[in-house]
C-alpha cells in the first residue's frame, strides 16, 4: 500500500494547501516565523499560566514581587550605606541609587534563571506534544516583565519621597533599556536552557553564576569606581550587558551621572550577539530535546 | 482521487542506547566517557538500536487505522515521529492537514489551576484557538461531568475526574488527522465507552484517525484498517481482522507445538519446575493447531521437576484473537494430589473432550507454574500458542461463521404441543 508522488498534480485543490514535510533534520534550521505566529495563542496561554501560577496559594500573593526587592534594597542600604559608609559618589541618596540597579538586576537574573530551567520544567509536555520549543524560554523571560513593572512601584515611591524626576530622554530610554535586558536574558537563557536539557550541571552552576555576576554588575556601586582598572571595566561593559543598562538607567531616571552612550552601545551589541548565539545553539539542538530531556 | 493525508516513506529512527536510558547526564560523565574513549582508541562504546526501520505507508482521508504491536515494537516512536515531537533518522513523512496528537490525556495540566483554567490551557496546548475553546466550553464541561468542580484546582480532583476532564478537552478537538495513543486505558468502563463512542463520531465525520491501543476489542470496533509493528518493522498492513489475527499469532506459527527448552534441562534460580514444551493434540494424539468444533482438544505441557513439590500448581488461559479471555484453567480445580510424587520429566495434559470454541483463532497463553509464591509466567497475554477452529465441522450440520460467537453450545431443543384445553 505504497503511494507514490505521481498523482500529486491536478487534484491538490481538494486538499488543504497546508503541507508539512518531516525529514531528518539538518544541523541548523532557521527560525520558522510563520509557525511562531501560528502558535501565538499558545505563547499567550503559557504566559498567562506562568503568571497565574506564580503566586497561587501564597498569602502575600503578588506582594512578593514588591517584598523581595524591597527587603534586598533595605538590607543593602543598611549594610553598605549605613554600616560601611558607602555612598553613591555624589549627593544622590544611596537607597534610591541601589533601587534602580536592584530592580533591573532582579528582572534580569530571575528571567535568566527561569528561562534556563524552563525546558527541563516542561519536560513532560515536550515529550508528549509538539509546539515550537522557543515559546517556552521566551515565555519565562516575558512574564517577569510583570514583576519588573510591579517592583518599579518601589522606585516610583522613592522618587516621589526624595523628589526626583526623570530626564525627558530618560522616558525614551526606558523601553530601550528594558529591551536590552530582555534580549540579554533571552539570549543567555536560550543557550543555558538548551545545555540544561543535556547536562543538568546547569541547575547547580546557575545560582552560583548569577551570584558572581551580580558582583560584576554595578548594582551596589557606580561603574566609574572601576576607572582605575580599565581592563576590568572594558570586560564588564562588553561582556555584561547589564552594566550599560544600569549605568544609563541611573543617568536617565535619577539623573545620576552623565549618559554613557559607549556602554549603552556595547550593551545593545552584546545582548544581540547573545541572542543570536543563543538562538543558533537552541535551534541546532532543539530536535533532540524530546529524546534526551 | 486525492493525495493521502499522511505519507510515510522509508521511515527510521535510531537511538543510542544510554542516551535515552539514562535520565540525565552530567558533564563529568561525558568527560569520563571521553577519556575512556581516548584510552581504548577505536573501540566504539556507543550502542545503537533502531526503534523503527523501513516503515512506509500512506493514509487516505477518512481512514481509521489501528496500530498494534507488543511493547517496544515501535508504536510510540512512530506516533512521536508523526506528531513531530522527535525527528526521524532516515526517511520522510508528509502530512497534509492539521494533525492533533493525543499521546497522553491532560498534557500540560497544571495542578494549581482550576478545571476551567485547565480547559483553556490544555486546549491551547492541543492546538485549539481561544475562540474555538470558548465556543465548545459548555460541551466540554457537559462531557466531562464535573460541572460542580469547575472552579476547584485540579490537584484536588480524584484521578477519575482528572481523566474525564482531560479527555473531554481532547475529544472536542477537530483536526483533520487525530493521532491517539493508548488513552482509553484510563477511566472507568462507562467513561471508556463514552470515549470510544466519541472517537467513532470523529471517524464517521470523515476525519482520519490513527489509533494505538492494547485493547483489541476497541481497535476492531473503531478501525477498518490495521497495521502490526514488530521489532520496529511494519509486518502487516491491511484489514483490521487480519491485523488482529497476525498480532495474536505474534508471528509464531508453531503448528501447535512450542519447545521452550530442549534437553538437557538446567535449573534456573530456585524454580521448582519448568515448562519445556507445550503442544496441542487431538483425540488420536496427533499434534495439530487445527481443531474442529466438537472434536477433542488436549493441551499438553512437558514439565521438568527439579524437586518433589506436592504443593505445585499450574494454570493457563485460552484467549480469543481479540484478547478476550475465554477459559482460565487452574490445576487446583482438580482434586489434589495431581503432582504428588512428580519428579524429573512429567507430562501434564488438560483435555477438553468436546471443543466448544466457535470457529476463529485462539491462543493459549499466560501459563503460570510454581509453588506458593515462587511462580513463573510463560507467555504474557496475547503471545502464546495459536490454534485455529475451522468454520465447518463434522460434528455440526451447518456452516459456522467465524467469530459469530465465542462458544458453540447445543442446548436441549424441544418442541411440544401446548397441553390440550379440553
Commentary on this structure:
- The complex is a heterodimer of chains A (293) and B (422).
- Chain A is mostly helical and 293 residues long.
- Chain A has one domain.
- Chain A is built from twelve helices and one strand; from the N terminus they run βαααααααααααα.
- Chain A has helices at 33-38, 40-54, 64-83, 94-121, 123-126, 135-162, 168-198, 201-215, 230-239, 241-253, 261-285, 289-292; one strand at 19-22.
- The longest helix of chain A is centred in the middle third of the chain and has 31 residues, at 168-198.
- Chain A starts with 18 loop residues before the first strand and ends with a helix.
- With 422 residues, chain B is α+β, with helices and mostly antiparallel strands.
- Chain B has two domains: 6-249, P-loop containing nucleotide triphosphate hydrolases (Rossmann fold); 257-389, abc- transporter (atp binding component) like domain (Coagulation Factor XIII, Chain A, domain 1, Distorted Sandwich), CATH 2.70.50.60.
- Chain B is built from eight helices and 18 strands.
- In chain B, strands 5-6-7-3-8-9 form a six-stranded mixed β-sheet, with helices on both faces. In chain B, strands 13, 14, 16, 17 and 18 form a five-stranded antiparallel β-sheet that branches. A four-stranded antiparallel β-sheet of chain B has the order 10-11-12-15, with no helix packed on it.
- Chains A and B meet through β1, α2, α5 and α12 of A and β1, α1, β2, β4 and α3 of B.
